[in-house]
Amino acid sequence: MHNLLRAYRGLFRANVAIAFTYRAQAVIWMLSFVFPLVMLAVWLAVVDQAGPVGGYNRGDFISYYLVGAVLYRFVLMGLTYHWDHEIRTGELSVRLLKPLDPFHYYLSEQLGWKVLDLLILVPLALVAALLIPGVHYALSPARLLAFVFSVVLGMTINVCISSAFGMIAFWTTQSRNLFELWSGIGQFLSGFIAPLPLFPLFMQRVAAVLPFRNSVGLPVDILMGRVGWAATGQGLLVGALWALGACMIYRVLWRLGLRRYEAVGA
Amino acid sequence: MAISVQQLTKSYRVHHKEAGLRSSLRNLFARRYELVEAVKQVSFEVAQGEIVGFLGPNGAGKTTTLKCLAGLLHPNAGSAEVLGFTPHNRERAFLKQITLVMGQRNQLLWDLPAMETFLVNQAIYGVPEREFRATLQELVALLGLEPLLTKQVRKLSLGERMKCELAASLLHRPRVLFLDEPTLGLDVTAQAAIRDFLRAYNQQYAVTVLLTSHYMADVTALAKRVLVIDHGELKYDGDLHALVEQTAPYKLLRLTLQQPVDSADLTRLGEIESLNGLEVTLRVPRDATKLVMAQVLASLPVEDVMIEEPPIEQIIRDVFQHGASYA
Amino acid sequence: MHAYLRLLTIFYRNAIINELEYRLNLWSRLLLSLFWLGWSAVGVSVFYVHVDRIAGWSYYELLVVLGMFVITNGFRQLVLEPNLSQMTEYVRMGTLDYILTKPVNSQFMVSLRNLNIFSLNEPLLGAGLIGYSLWHLRHLPSPAAFALFGLLTIAALLVLYSLNLLLQTLTFWLVNLENADALVGSVVEAGRLPVAFYGGWVRWALTAFIPVAFVTTFPAEALLGRLDGRIAVVAVVLAALLLLAATTFWNVALRSYTSASS
After folding, report:
1. Topology of the domain covering B3-8+42-244
2. Of B55, B183, B316, C262, which residue is the least packed, with the fewest Cβ within 10 Å?
């Protein structure tokens, strides 16, 4: 465990440094928030025209998308792409000779970017929250704690699931495409596109039992005080079960895939 | 003259980046730049049909000079002329007569057989079909490409890839070849094959070749004339063998002894370069070689004696390390 | 001109041979394109669960704009992404050096050298969506409207290309700009919807500053027969000016590249 932490510190430093070197890229990448803003703009037009929609007024929408857009970027994990690339090109072989599970290289790279996220996006979001009229959150120590917990849970789920999708690369070339499909569905059912309560009822029911909601919808709702404690607990439990399940699937596929990889001698 | 370079000077800015998070953060706001003079007032001329090798350590300015001549870099001062053109204007007529091969760079289409790249280059250079077929046939024969043509480039070995790279670069029959480390990373046989090809090609078509290489063997095998560049300055321009004579005023005497001798007896004759049982190598002054040779035969129990030029790698290394004087 | 056409034929023949190696991918990309098309159409329908019209646009009128978005975005993936977006890579890998030593216009080479034929289906799907929406609206555009639409679509593509070239040319100074196409992509995202949906300064910015309105809204309006003719003139002039600006900038940058790089 101690060694792992030390390895992370090294990898982390390098990756944060890499992320910072690409400063121009970082600026541009920050601008890639347009989609949620587009959705927000339309909701505002709708509210101006027809009044509050499904219990969301102007301030509610802004509060929702402000946190939701940042969260989605932050919680999203693209480990599938690392796995897929390294398995298909055979670069995984080199990793396998190192004393550290390749997983950690990819994760630390992703986390390096998340540090950049935190340092740049959170201050921006805070300033926006303070300056824009009508933005409001139900802040209490307990809620903040639940919020942080649900965000970490969301990240864990995404780490495991994106890795599990990466494992598919051992068998077919379609792992990226499958993950894209999964992410696309997730953008609906996570609440990234719009607050889940504004979707038809059956979609809300489906979303409640799938892992996506932990990425955006649940944490934002916790922060905005839109869910009670019972519903919060239920949501976190569903998330925890998914995290566990996804992690197990990933590890099992890893063992099977590795055996195959070594047999083929790629 | 195929190439004429006068007082060529090229400098550029590089930015510094230290390790660590703090400097990364600092870099985010302010970058420190430094002006590097890559090439300083270099002048030389190359005749059509000549092969000239660039020698110099990494970062000496070899590649920069080559890029200036290929038209990829504007010189800051001085002038360069290649085939009567100013390279950095990159006129079509100029580009059609030159070619650039970079050992560590790749221009072949990765996922397709090399033949597809050849066809692309045919179109790019506007080579008429019949001429293209003829040239291709020759290159295929010279380089032994026949079995490679239909294989995907990414499945070729490094050496095979470089052969295809050369063929792709020569299809338009350029008159001037700029070769930047063409044998980089290749194994000894592949290096030799590339070398043999270049020599044969040069003899057959009298093309002008400018070559940089880490491998001294490339330069010694191909170029009679070398340009030594160090820290951006032209230190030597002339015959390779003359360079050896000037900078290494000694020869090597390799002795095989019948029985061990006292090393004091050896030091009297010359500086001991190596002593390995009965095998001895002595450094002796160039003009005293014959004299020492006679002494050796008279005073030592020798089985065999050979006089050798010191290996050129070593000479060059000496030159760069000790800043030996160039005449 | 003829020589360049010949070059394109050879380039794209290669692109096709190249991609046919991955037939499975061709099919799965087609399926994914269909998926994203549905995704977009369903995504914007969430508004219409709550209202019938937004800023004067009904759902199916909106889908015409969306179809235009899919077409232009498809063009971006088809032509811009495999070429201009590779600029950083070109600079880093020395490919640009090779391109510059070739006796062919360098802007042509960096703009049209490759083709991502996987994305060939996107513009077709976009056109399909437009057709479907028009059928739903029981609206058959006049020949004049079709001609205007064609003209504005060409202008739209030129605008997109020029913006991309301007941005990618910055690579010469800012070494790591791999996500520049993500920037263009995300700005174009705003074109999923008619500019009328956006309030105040955003609408103004999307029309005048980042001409997203010219990329999707105006061509769609031309097809729906509600476009002011004067805007068409502005669109053509804008496209021409941007193209000129981008080409000039490219040439300036090239001069700087050859005088600055190592």
Report:
1. Rossmann fold (3.40.50)
2. C262
Distance of CA C52 to the CA centre of its chain: 30
Would the CB atoms of B27 and A16 count as touching at under 8 Å? no
Q: What is the pTM of this model?
A: 0.79
C-chain residue closest to A53, CA distance:
C50
Q: ipTM of this predicted complex?
A: 0.83
Q: How many angstroms separate the CA atoms of B138 and C88, rounded?
A: 37
Chain A residue at shortest CA distance from B18:
A17
Domain boundaries, chain B: 3-8+42-244, 250-308
Tell me: the pLDDT tens digits for C192-242? 889 988 877 788 888 887 888 999 999 999 999 998 889 999 999 999 999
With an 8 Å Cβ cutoff, is B103 touching chain C?
no
Q: Which residues of chain B make contact with A21, given a CB cutoff of 8 A?
A: 17, 24, 27
Q: Which residues of C touch B126 (CB under 8 A)?
A: 3, 103
> Domain segments of chain A: what residues?
2-264
Q: Do A41 and C199 touch (CB under 8 A)?
A: yes
pLDDT digits (tens, 9 = 90+) for A188-240: 899 999 999 999 999 999 999 999 999 999 999 999 999 999 999 999 999 99
Going through chain B in order, the beta strands assigned E by DSSP cover: 3-15, 33-46, 51-55, 77-82, 98-102, 176-180, 208-212, 225-230, 233-239, 250-257, 271-276, 279-285, 302-308
Fold classification of B250-308 is Alpha-Beta Plaits (3.30.70)
| Whole-number percent of chain B with pLDDT over 70 | 91
Structure tokens at A148: 């942080």
B20 to A13: CB separation less than 8 angstroms, yes or no? yes
